[in-house]
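Q&A log
Question type: sequence-to-structure
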Amino acid sequence: MDATIVVTHSEKENAAPTYKRTFGYHPIGVWCDNTEEFLAASLRPGNAGSNTAADHIEVLGQAIAQVPANHRRELLIRSDGAGASHDLLNWVTEQNRVRGRRVEYSVGFSITGPLRRAIATCPEEAWGPALNPDGDIREGAEVAELTGFLAPGLLAKWPAGMRVIVRRERPHPGAQLSMFEEIDGWRYQAFVTNTATGQLQFLEARHRAHARVEDRIRHAKDTGLGRLPSREFALNQAWLVAVMLAADLVAWTRMLACTGDAAVLALCEPKALRYRFLHAAARLARSGRRRRVKIPETWPWAIAIVAVFNTIAAIPKPA
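Response status: OK
Response body:
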């Protein structure tokens, strides 16, 4: 889950100044990391808050409803620090009351005074090496759990079972550090999770994979979200739904049809896929009561396009 800014250059209904000192809208969306599907979104005014729990709960509820029932048994909800609100984490925790469902969260957390004091009291032996997504050790990065170093009264305000994990990393040259970070030269980032088991390194690497949502946002903007065409808010809401449909069609095509001879298209972003696939100078020919799509043999991706059509045609029809 993440939000983004869509800039407008004219007066439009509900457009407003944003926290980035631009003007436009502040939509929030939820994507399925496994399939890259655009599950749900809400178009909001530009001055909508980044951490408005009601908006997060609404769009997450819609997203979970989009997931087929037999795949809702184990869910992981990831967000940046904007999702670290009491109301949202309480709502996610309540979802575990649904029979046969386990909902976990991994949400960014601000480095506040209590966390800084916990970091200062955390012994060196509590820190372990951080890992890259491929499992290799991440040079100059370490991870530790701070849950046991925080005051019980502070933890009591949050849902039961919440764990606080922090990563520290040597900053890149030229990076700006806070006054606290300048003391020992480490840059700190924290997140919270209700996952009870698993190595800290795995949980931290799993949380950092949330950064893939930035790719989903970029793809959505390349598919139409970058410009909202109407002065009317309702029409722009409909446009957002069309963007979601287009993003899902791209995700399904890449996942289901871009295999074998079409694998060259599997990793294409929307702009490249649009050029290689949709911009092919094909023509529709009719003969013998049949219609055929003729693709120039000189088109570099002609074989891949044919493979995509053949794969889609071979998908069994739903019962």
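Response note: The chain has two domains: 2-217, 258-319.
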